[in-house]
């Protein structure tokens, strides 16, 4: 079965085509500047170079057509025709309380995703555009599956997702902790189980998805029991440009003193805060490291705040789960920034956590970086959300065919 995985943004669209018989990536790429002019970057694993061209894309349907055209291209393509695509899997950011698992898309699913737009207006709207574009270009007979960022966290208990505000706001507006990056947290927890030889149902693991967007999740018995992101992806850790958790009264204070609306302040919290806001340098940790090496104290402060926040979450989740078997680092920063991994785990020997400095030198490789005698293993596991989407799509489509 060939599965096309789509991750649609407001003006971009990432894709990967999988052969699910062997889980091989046949091709992948990115459509950018949709609605402006359009640019396609495409990778065929059998070629040493990438295909990069400006391709007119007035909307996402044009982007999907560009993807299909390059996939069947005689020189750069990997399939003979669109008919060789058996199903499409879509990343959908917010499923609210409707979905605790991935699902085949039908009219009722579309309606539920639309109902969640107020919870993730930019993301869910873009995801729906991608779904509609695939239907327009590929036809209604090609099964499409929605895989939700929030679904993995639907196993949390009310004590972990209910906010201490009037309960009526939860009943009326579904204001609660939802959590995000669920597909990534689910994948690396499963990989940790395989690496350690511990059945998932017996494993206690803390998964640290650290990148421009970051979240930490406590996974017990294969289920999310707590996570750092909340009602929106703005909550939790300070991130590239997002503030993370702050005193909510700050928003009203800034509205009064800066003469801005709440919406404008939230824009600042989302796009001008985090390590970028503190450092004044960049949202990219590589740029922070360069600035730190040049003696920039604010850059050092920004990185230290981030590291301290991750450390606090690990400690609290160990307490919540009554112990931990492994801490996992994943995503761009977690997989590649050895200084972040080292600093997060420093002074945690009393908890059984100790990183081997030689093993920690490696980047982007799946491995155990703990010292041999550590009671708690520290793992680096590159995430693969697209593979999870493809696997869920295959599972659901085959189950529907067997009915």
TrEMBL record:
Mg(2+). Can also accept Mn(2+). The keyword Kinase applies. Pfam families: Acetate_kinase (PF00871). The keyword ATP-binding applies. It is found in: Cytoplasm. Substrate binds at residue 91. The record marks 181, 242 as: Transition state stabilizer. Transmembrane segments: none annotated. The active site is at residue 149. InterPro entries: Ac/propionate_kinase (IPR004372), Aliphatic_acid_kin_short-chain (IPR000890), Aliphatic_acid_kinase_CS (IPR023865), ATPase_NBD (IPR043129). Homodimer. Catalyzes the formation of acetyl phosphate from acetate and ATP. Can also catalyze the reverse reaction. This is Acetate kinase. The lineage of its organism: Bacteria, Bacillati, Bacillota, Clostridia, Eubacteriales.
């Amino acid at each position: 079965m060939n599965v096309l995985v789509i991750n649609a943004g407001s003006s971009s669209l990432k894709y990967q085509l999988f052969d699910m018989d062997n889980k091989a990536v046949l091709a992948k790429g990115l459509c950018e500047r949709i609605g402006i002019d359009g640019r396609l970057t495409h990778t065929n694993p059998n070629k040493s170079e990438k295909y990069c061209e400006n391709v007119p894309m007035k909307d996402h349907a044009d982007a999907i057509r560009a993807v299909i055209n390059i996939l069947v291209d005689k020189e750069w393509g990997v399939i003979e025709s669109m008919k060789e695509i058996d199903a499409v899997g879509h990343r959908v950011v917010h499923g609210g309380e409707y979905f605790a698992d991935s699902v085949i898309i039908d009219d009722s699913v579309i309606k539920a995703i639309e109902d969640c737009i107020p919870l993730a207006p930019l993301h869910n709207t873009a995801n729906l555009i991608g779904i509609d574009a695939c239907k327009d270009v590929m036809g209604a007979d090609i099964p499409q599956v929605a895989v939700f960022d929030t679904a993995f966290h639907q196993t949390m208990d009310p004590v972990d997702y209910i906010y201490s505000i009037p309960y009526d706001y939860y009943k009326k507006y579904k204001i609660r902790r939802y959590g995000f990056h669920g597909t990534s947290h689910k994948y690396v927890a499963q990989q940790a189980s395989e690496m350690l030889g511990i059945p998932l149902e017996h494993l206690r693991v803390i998964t640290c998805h650290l990148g421009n967007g970051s979240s930490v999740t406590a996974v017990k018995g294969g289920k999310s029991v707590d996570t750092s992101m909340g009602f929106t992806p703005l909550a939790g850790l300070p991130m590239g440009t997002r503030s993370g958790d702050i005193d909510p009264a700050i928003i009203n204070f800034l509205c009064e003193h800066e003469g801005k609306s709440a919406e404008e302040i939230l824009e600042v919290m989302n796009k001008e805060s985090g390590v970028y806001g503190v450092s004044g340098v960049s949202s990219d940790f590589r740029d922070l490291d360069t600035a730190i090496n040049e003696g920039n104290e604010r850059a050092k402060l920004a990185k230290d705040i981030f590291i301290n926040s991750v450390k606090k979450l690990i400690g609290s989740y160990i307490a919540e789960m009554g112990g931990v078997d492994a801490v996992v680092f994943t995503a761009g920063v977690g997989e590649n920034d050895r200084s972040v991994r080292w600093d997060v785990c420093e002074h945690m020997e009393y908890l059984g956590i100790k990183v081997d400095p030689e093993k920690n030198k490696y980047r982007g490789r799946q491995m155990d970086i703990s010292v041999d005698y550590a009671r708690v293993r520290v793992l680096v596991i590159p995430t693969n959300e697209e593979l999870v989407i493809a696997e869920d799509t295959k599972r659901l489509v085959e189950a529907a065919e067997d009915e």
